[in-house]
Structure formats: C-alpha cells, structure tokens
User: Fold this.
Amino acid sequence: MKLQYLAPAVFSAASTAAILVFLAGPAAAQSGAETGETAQGDVSVTIYNNNLALVQDVRQLDIARGRSRIAFPDVSAQIRPETLSFAAADTAIVEQNFDFDLLTPTKLMEKAIGQTVTLIRTNPATGAETRERATVLSTAGGVVMQIGDRIEVLRDDGLPVRVIFDRVPPNLRARPTLSVTLESSRAGTRPASIRYLTPGLGWSADYVALFDEAKGTVDMQGWVTLTNSTGTSFHAADTLLVAGNPNTNSERRVVRPSGVSRISPGTETAEREQLGEFYLYPIAERTTIANNQTKQVSFLDVQGVPARKVYGRTVRWLVTDQQPVNVSSRIAFSSSREGGLGDALPAGTVRFYQRDAKGNPQFIGENGIPHTPMGSELVLDTGDAFDIFAQVEVEKREKITAADFERSARYRIIENGETVREVQVDRAVDYYRTTMRYTLTNAKAEPVDVELVQAGLDRGVWGRDFRIPSEDVPGEQLNADRRKYVISVPANGKRVVRVTYETRY
Assistant:
C-alpha cells in the first residue's frame, strides 16, 4: 500500500460546494424551496419586531392506530423545538426530534466515511472519463480515500471530477424536518396542527414621505418590510404583524430614534385590533414569504398631512463653540386623527423627499422612529441646514453669594392667606451666574425661526433650583432639563440672544 497525492487534484472538504456531486437513483430530490413544492398545509405566521415569529401549520395526516412516527418536512431550520405544540384528534405526542443535518456536498462526504463511492475524472485534453471505486477514510482537513491498494488525498486545484454516491445517508434531510412519535386511539386521516416559535423572521416599517414646503403638507406612504432567513419558505401564509417586542428572556433589539429633535407621545387610540399591549397589522392577502427574501407590503397611504419645516439645535450646558455650527433642518407633523396621519406608527425609518424646480422628487434625509402612538407630535431631523448657523458661547461666568442667589427668587409659599417662608441650611453652597450668548446667522433670502434648546439644566434634586433672571427671548421650559427659545433671524441677517442663568452648579 502506498500514499500518493492525486496529480489531477479534486477538492478539499472545505470547498465541496464547488464539486459536481451526483446521487445514483431518485433519492436526489430537490428542496421544496427550489421546486416550489411544499409539504406545508394551512400556514399562519405571526411576526414580531424582535426577529421572532410564531408559525402555525395545519396539515391533513393519515395517522395509524397505536404508536407511529410521522415526519413534518418544511419547518423552519431555526425552529425552537422546546416551543413546539402538537394537536390532533384522539392523538397524543410521545417524542419529537428535529433533524437539522441538511443535505449538502460537505455533509454528504462526511456521512460517507467508511462507505464506497465512485470517482469520475475527466481528462482536460481529451475529454475522456475514467471511473474508480473508492472508500472514504476521512474528511478532517481534506478528503482521504482508499482506491484499490493505495491511499490518496484529494486536493482542490479546479480540475474536473465527479463523485457519485450510491444513496443518501438516512440521517441527512433535503429539507428541515420535524419528526414526532404519536400514540393514537384510532386510525384515519385528520387535521393535525403544529405550532412553534422561530427566529429568522422579522419585519420593520419604512415610510416614504413627500414634503411640499410651499403647501405645508406631506404625503406619507408606509411599507412593511418582511425578511426571512429561517432556511425555509412559508407558502401562501396568512400573515399577521405585531408592533411590539414581547419579552423572550433574550437580548431584545430596541429600535431607538437617531437624531430626533422631539417626539411627544400621543393619547389617541388607533382604530386597529390590539393584542394585549400590541397593535396588529394584518396583511390583507395570503403571501409566500420565500427564504432569503425581502418583501414589502403597503399599510399606510395618506395625502396632504399638515407639516412644516423647523430649524433647531440642542446644546449642552456650558458649551462654547470654537466656530459656528450648522443648525438642523427638521420636519414636524402629527399622527393624530384630525390633522395628522390618523394611525399608530410602528418603529421604522422615515425617508423624506422634496420636489426640485423640475418637479422631480429628490431625497432630503431620513430618520428613525420608535413605536409611536396615534396623536403624537413628531419633529424629525433630516440633515444640516446649509445657510443657517448657530454659535453658542459662555459669555460670562462668575461665582455669586447665597444672598445674591436669593435675590432672584420669585416664589411665595402661602398658607391660610399668610405668606410663610421656611429656610433650611444644610451646608455651604456655591452659586453661579452664567450668561450664554447665542449668535445665529441666516444666508437665506427670507427670515427663519430657529428652535434653540438649552439642555443640561437638571443636575438632580440638589441642583434643580435654577433661576433665569434675564433672557432676550422668552423661553419655554420643556422639562426640568431643557428650555426652548424660538429665535427669529432676519433674511440675510444675524441675531444675537443672551440668557442669564443662576444655578448651584
């Protein structure tokens, strides 16, 4: 016996996908996803936002009396077997197995260890073929075969070779298959349903918004984007989408907005079916969700929703810009029933378009939104404003005394018609007077309003007692941490606004 490397090298175990592999006989059936055939029955799929789906499949099965074993091909290749539920009249499930060892060239060669196969080599010069019977010895790091009295290691150098297998190993499946052992009190055909959870099916919402600045409106179309990476196609499925992320004891993908100026949650109930805390978005017609496919279905189409352009910037506490910064361009609209989109909005991405002088829609920016109830007010960033800048500076900052701080107090505590004042000194406290200067410039031919938000005012309970002795523009306190100023900037002009804060930080 001698050890020899094949001159006409063939393949390695790592690259068997490139080999021409043939099966002797009809056992080489294609998968249902490739042929369009399926063993599935009446399929219903409920898809959640967190890459999770509930699959329900009702099939007509001929079940024998007593104990029998039945296979369910065409289930998800990522099925969570521990979530399986089986139901059939007069039948109980005894045992279940999920066969996920799928038929591939690599697996076929691995399962053929100790078996005999046929090698067919083709001479590149003459096209002549030679056949040899070979026993597969190993596939670890390469394929080792015994051919007659010699041992050969097959290599991968691109020369043509075919391997013919006599049969498919019994433990390899062409399609993901669930097999169950049943105990039935009677024989006969009856509907049998399986229900299971699987990752690999997910959906998100995508919104296409055409903004008309002159009319102050937006046309909004909402698309559901389905993705399937389960390894199985679901044929003619009754599909239901759930807007929400049920707890699955695993890491959850939470959709968070990016660059959002403001979302004020609404208080209106959408006219949609709800399941617990979630809204349901059924797809009107049955649809086939093919493996490795992205599918889009329309679920929202509203025209002429009132919308407006907003310029704004949010700055942190004690920020000093070394140079002017572009303010953000934002589009504001509502999801309310009156004067809005009139629906709850699943989490997704809103892409804005605007027509140019020729009337062609052009992309102007996008932003993400979380699950948003109906009646919400949304102000979404679309990008930087080319012509409008804001420069924020700490113009003056000085330490002041407690007495100075108290002089700016504008509160009274009144009980029973009398003014009561309680002072409790816990420790010596430093106070500060800070004057911020906001400089805004506008190169547009028309005046603009800029919403400038000063953030960082809330430093916890001990630092929440801040005062604003003076401000050039009246501000609106959005919450304990943020105060908004709407500043009008003239056309081709400049505006400087100063605000003085007295704080304990």
